[in-house]
Amino acid sequence: MDLASFITSVLTSFVIFVVLVLLFTWLSRRPGNAMVYYPSLLLRGLDPWEGRRRGSRSPVGWISDAISASETDVVAAGGVDAAVYLVFLSSGTPISDEHSTIISIDLLPFAVAVLSILVYSGIILLPVLLPVAGTDNALEGAAGFSPIEKLALGNVQKKSARLWAFLLSVYWVSFVTYFVLWKSYKHVSNLRATARSTPEIKPEEFAVLVRDLPRPSPDETIKDSVDSYFRALHPNTFYRSVVVTDHTKADKIYQEIEGHKQKIARAEVVYANSKTESNPEGIKPTHRTGLLGLIGKKVDTIEYCSEQIKELLPKLEAEQKTTLREKQQRAAIVIFNSRSAAASASQTLHAQVFDKWTVMEAPEPRQIIWPNLPRKIYERQIRQAVVYTIVFLIVCFYIIPITAISAVTTLENLREKLPFLKVVVDQKEIKTVLEAYLPQLALILFLAFLPALLMFLSKAEGIPSQSHLVRAASGKYFYFIVFNVFIGYTLGATLFKSLTTVINHPTGIVNMLAKSLPGSATFFLTFVALKFFVGYGLELSRLVPLIIFHLKRKYLCKTEDEVKAAWAPGDLRYNTRVPNDMLIATVVLCYSVIAPLIIPFGVAYFALGWLVAKNQVLRVYVPSYESNGRMWPHMHTRIIAALLLYQTTMLGVIGLKVFLYAPILVPLIPMSFIFAHVTHMRFYPAFDKTPLEVAQHELKEAPNMDAIYTAYIPQCLKPDKLEDLDVFEDAQSHTTSRAPSI
Amino acid sequence: MDLASFITSVLTSFVIFVVLVLLFTWLSRRPGNAMVYYPSLLLRGLDPWEGRRRGSRSPVGWISDAISASETDVVAAGGVDAAVYLVFLSSGTPISDEHSTIISIDLLPFAVAVLSILVYSGIILLPVLLPVAGTDNALEGAAGFSPIEKLALGNVQKKSARLWAFLLSVYWVSFVTYFVLWKSYKHVSNLRATARSTPEIKPEEFAVLVRDLPRPSPDETIKDSVDSYFRALHPNTFYRSVVVTDHTKADKIYQEIEGHKQKIARAEVVYANSKTESNPEGIKPTHRTGLLGLIGKKVDTIEYCSEQIKELLPKLEAEQKTTLREKQQRAAIVIFNSRSAAASASQTLHAQVFDKWTVMEAPEPRQIIWPNLPRKIYERQIRQAVVYTIVFLIVCFYIIPITAISAVTTLENLREKLPFLKVVVDQKEIKTVLEAYLPQLALILFLAFLPALLMFLSKAEGIPSQSHLVRAASGKYFYFIVFNVFIGYTLGATLFKSLTTVINHPTGIVNMLAKSLPGSATFFLTFVALKFFVGYGLELSRLVPLIIFHLKRKYLCKTEDEVKAAWAPGDLRYNTRVPNDMLIATVVLCYSVIAPLIIPFGVAYFALGWLVAKNQVLRVYVPSYESNGRMWPHMHTRIIAALLLYQTTMLGVIGLKVFLYAPILVPLIPMSFIFAHVTHMRFYPAFDKTPLEVAQHELKEAPNMDAIYTAYIPQCLKPDKLEDLDVFEDAQSHTTSRAPSI
Lengths: 742, 742
What we know:
Chain A is mostly helical. Among the domains of chain A are: 3-200 and 517-666, no CATH class; 250-319; 377-461, no CATH class. Helices cover 63% and strands 4% of the residues of chain A. Chain A has helices at residues 3-28, 34-37, 39-43, 61-68, 71-89, 93-98, 113-134, 147-150, 163-196, 222-233, 248-274, 301-326, 339-347, 377-397, 399-408, 411-417, 422-425, 428-460, 466-491, 493-497, 499-504, 506-516, 521-541, 543-555, 560-567, 574-591, 598-619, 632-656, 668-688, 692-695, 705-711, 725-730; strands at residues 207-211, 238-245, 286-288, 298-300, 328-336, 358-361. In chain A, the strands form two sheets. The first copy, chain A, has a four-stranded antiparallel beta sheet, with helices on both faces. A two-stranded antiparallel ribbon of chain A has the order 3-4. The radius of gyration of chain A is 30 Å and the shape is globular. In chain A, 41% of the residues are buried. The interface between A and B is large, with 36 and 36 residues.
């Protein structure tokens, strides 16, 4: 790629970005769009305009708002997970400690994690490496090299002493990464400890998830056996247990009732609206009972649905009873009457045999994946092994079926197989467009559905909570994109052609990467620029949600609830967001020494990303769960993985320059492993388990144990009144073994 | 080796064995030797002859006694560790369940672990493989092969369909091993659970070892900070803590006093004996105060020692106070008032940061290695890494310095360097003998000191308890002997010559092993026979301890205590015993299919070993610690390691016969890994931690907490009376923060 096309490409991206930001500034100030641009604020009962700071109405107000918001604000709006994500992108310590509202742009250079790594690296690498490379002349005489390439490692002569600068830069970048990661892990660890020791009462801190229950004796239910087992082992601290049930049928009836209720609400609004002056009686809304409301008998909606509800309610009650008594599954949530008792119980081995009574910390009620809880330990192991194999095959060989499908679905084939398409296909313009895009169609569809596919696969592993699921899917997606986009693009077809060579000589892949990397520098420069300008522009302007919301509100929504559902912002979707950022981090890290010019682009990407994400966290997204930053150890490990890839390729790249001292880089690789081991040993246990120190904190008030208990009862089984809890308990056991009231 | 020399060798061994057994039978029936042959019985206050069963006085009485003793008897005599060792050798389930006194030889075939593996394997392999191999003729025409070699795999033609029998035999042996190991692990796991839930009060079940204490604030001692920390986190269950102190100086004074006390006792006996009729006054014993009692002033021993004790006692008291107050170290034993509280606390993460307040189960008081407790977590990690590196170097390259030393210390060199040896060396007979043995001298000395060296290295890792130390040293010794005796002998010099080939092609070593193994079959047959006949003969007859005891009693011992010390039997020394047995198991396993004739020898080795070990456990050895069978997971893992070595070499051996279907063996290798993983997952946690189920058992009586507390106070610091405990407590803290009495 020559300089002109590079500049064109970056400029185009920049123009698109400016247009999108202007659009955002204009659209977000229109009150009618508040639901799209400030849903998080609205849901927390805040007015997006009144009481906001002076900057809010100025075009760049959102920037100063985002920068000045403290970490406490972020935790309040988006939870610890969002705060941890922001630490990952860039910042952390300085701002959180101050709770300041001043515009703290000057604090940014001290910010941590990826942004800090790049900033610290850039401070040294740019002023040192650019002149060192620029004043050499290895490329002189070679045709068609761009000024960008002249400022990179490629321009340095073989065996040149200038390579020392590059070699030491690798050390600098590595040490900066260690330093920043250590500080960040410490910071996140404190963040997590603080969040876990707030005086608020959280049901999950009183509960323990127990799986692999043994088969109970014939004269007792599973509930009975759980109660007696835990009462015996924790006589002073056991409160009650919720046995997991197979409540799909009860849930179906419950949802049906809810559906009818919604229909009635909607019909009443329609009915009220139809009472115009000309027709004061109005028209009673009707619908057909058959398929999709298109066929079948025409009925009065309100009457019909009320009747249906009346019919379904006793059915639900009967089904609830059957579910509670007969559909108990071999897993349970056990609730203790103190947080430290629960923390301690979740970490203690209960049974002599490991595959019985396995305990772990209970997830939040809202993020439990009920069907996965009763899976046996061996089943979980086997499922995990199968899923990992499938993912491995997808990561390495997904291109094969995609290519095969593309080959089969050529235009000619489609024309023959589906003759009715002929009319369309035979038109010349359409044909041209289709011919251009059809080959990629399978690939595009595959990539679009990949995150969902990975979520599905991770769910099949038997993971008990949504946050864990997101972490698992995010890991898989990370490997996919780093392997396919970064390594895949760099090596291109050579990798697959010489696959046998690679298998026989694993070191060969490093050499191949080393040979190919410098050539792709400009491509990745453009790639990063495109990603951040267009990606963040779209993210900030929320054009797609805006259009969908307005369409829905105009043509579909009748009741307030429906409107609310139409602007529901969802959460940050870490499962695709984190791997994509990690890809950029990997790319920038790997090129930081080869072509230091990439660093400013990386800094811009993460600074802008931090700004936009902070804005979105504060104003838009609503977290659907809180895992108190359990994502961090994964981010940490993956940054180290990227660092290792970087160190290995640099060893190859500098080695290819026939530089005698290249082996000086070798110690970096074990050093990274030791760093990973030490940080894991030091910080990870507090992410995996709850330290007693943390669980021992004071509570705001004496916990309402019944409320904690009820939080773990699925919606469709919940008794209407708290007083019914004892009846609910009794329904589950053969003997009336009621828990002693505390 | 031809047949004649093989038979000669085995017969010689057998004759030695018979002589030793006869010696044992004769010697063990002489009352004067009871202390050598029945020390364990004597120490438990049992009479070796009265009340013993009818068989005891018959020559083979010990055999029936050993066979009929139940596992409960074994646990009573030698602890769970000894019982587990017997399970490892051979038996277990059948005998323990019956508590029978009948001679249960017919039960032996059902016995488990190594013996069972070999018996089950032999049942199929011997009748099938011997005829299959014997009737082939690959060796015909080759010169100098023995009938033994004709009955082995070497006699089967290449590509022959007979190889199917050998291939399937590998599967049979593998499955037998899985089956037996699974049953044994289950059995040992129950044994451990039973032992841990006895109603006896054991101090270690109430205690938790806490290491990596943080630096206390300046106005409190370490003891204060431990007490306040644990009282805050376990308000209802914390009892008291014993802070580890650097008590070497106090211990030195204490030992000095004890030494003087012993001297007085001895002098009094000598004095009493000297009062003969001719000299009714007697002679007061005297000694010199200088070096080794050879120089210096001559003093009256009794007077002198009494004075010394009088002088030392106040010194000891002062030193005790200083130690308690000022020499507190950053580790502590924390005692809880219930077993389940201690079990739960030892498994719960206490601090947010992992390298502070790390907890683990407390070892028994008698096996604590005090100086290792205060080592920091990072120090432990680094020490471990260094020790592992040293051991790796010793295992692989110990032969290099040994050879170098041998080369330097030739007779000629010695003669030149140490001229005074000339007189000795120049005599012809001595010269011949020295020339024969001197080269091996360094090797012999090295091998003799190796177990001690490995114990020393393991101790340097920072391991907190004696039993853990023995496990660690045993593992290192296992790798040493398997690598050097088995692989080393088989491959011989070829391995070291072609070391570079091996490093480049790791699969090459398998091929080399496969080529060399069949040739060494006869050597290992002889090796196993020698090992068991001579080894067990010596073990049973206890000739060396017998001679040492009689010499000591005659010339050295004066007081009863000294006699008792002279026959103190020690414990089983698992650190060398288990690896040696494992070596035989590895050898027999690896040859089981190549030369099935080795199986009867292996069966004899383990059956006899089981018999002798059981006899020694019941009558001789006294356990010096009890780890409730924590050795088992290590034995289990190492049997699997041996199995993997076996499967890999068999793949090579059958592959070398150009047998097309050899790859059918490949799935066995992942299968073994999966088996290891599943058993580890299922059984190991109950060995690593105490399950609550087990800790919850009823106690015989309410525990005497003061006695438990005192058990963890080192001998030299122990207050004389239990009432002084509070004073003892106060001596350690700045503030008087006495524990609330329970």
